Amino acid sequence: MIILSIPICILGLMGNAMVFYFLCYKIQKTRFTVYIQNMIFADIVVLLYQYTYFMLFLKPTAVSAPVSNFLELVYMLAYNAGLYILTSLCAERCVSVFYPIWYQSHRPKRFSVIICAILWVFSALVSILEYFTCYPRFYAYLEEDSYGCYFQTIFQIIIFLIFVPIMVGSTLAIFIRMKQKMRQSPPAAIDVSITALVIFFIVFDSSVRVYNFVEYWYDTIGVPLFAVSVLCDTISTSVDPFLLFFIGYCTERACDPLEVFVERALQDERNRVEGT
């Protein structure tokens, strides 16, 4: 599974790096590009960790404890932030679609930036708590640490059960409205992109998170499922830029530069503004 994951990881790093560059310097800003930009950055961090992990697995190398601890903590920070930011993107888009007048008049300036900053801080707090309560169990199942890790695992499950239903419910509402409006006009590309991102998140990323929860209580679940979860984790963080390229291409089917594909995939004329 790791051999399969390595080329996916490399392609994912290249794709995410290109999209991140386009979002920073090439694409006109909208109220939703900030969320995508932060999601892509989180994916890059996770992929860099995974690539390092794969290389160390294939060619074992001594790594100092501080470096190892830092890499693990940064991975957890980015891994958790991806879930929170995608949920926020879905929720804000849902509100903008169903309550456009209220949304236009009540949305604070720089709202996306503020929300992303808050979610990164929240992710940092959750990751630090997880690290210091559960981290020793990845080396040995230490009895004295099991109590704190138990409550931390329950806390992570609660967070998962809060964010994922919001994400799925918002996306389902967007999808139903999109299907209803298709007879009148083509759907907004941003709605198609959000739907695709959430579907792939549910299929790949959620399966990894559920495996991690189950593995805490049933550590005899076996290495094969762990290997599959590594592959799914790699796919979930690598696929987003290629989804955007594909959706942007399908919007007009023209041979344009890649940044144009990404801009099309995130386009919604009603909410197209310079500020975020």
Automatic annotation (TrEMBL):
It is a multi-pass membrane protein. One of its GO terms (cellular component) is plasma membrane. It comes from the Eukaryota. Keywords: Cell membrane, G-protein coupled receptor, Membrane, Receptor, Transducer, Transmembrane, Transmembrane helix. SUPFAM superfamilies: Family A G protein-coupled receptor-like (SSF81321). Coiled coil: none annotated. It is found in: Cell membrane. One of its GO terms (molecular function) is G protein-coupled receptor activity. The chain crosses the membrane at residues 6-25, 32-53, 73-91, 111-133, 153-176, 188-204. Its main location: membrane. Residues 15-244 form the G-protein coupled receptors family 1 profile domain. The keyword Plastid does not apply. PANTHER family: MAS-RELATED G-PROTEIN COUPLED RECEPTOR, MAS-RELATED G-PROTEIN COUPLED RECEPTOR MEMBER X2. Belongs to the G-protein coupled receptor 1 family. Mas subfamily. This is G-protein coupled receptors family 1 profile domain-containing protein. It comes from Phrynocephalus forsythii.
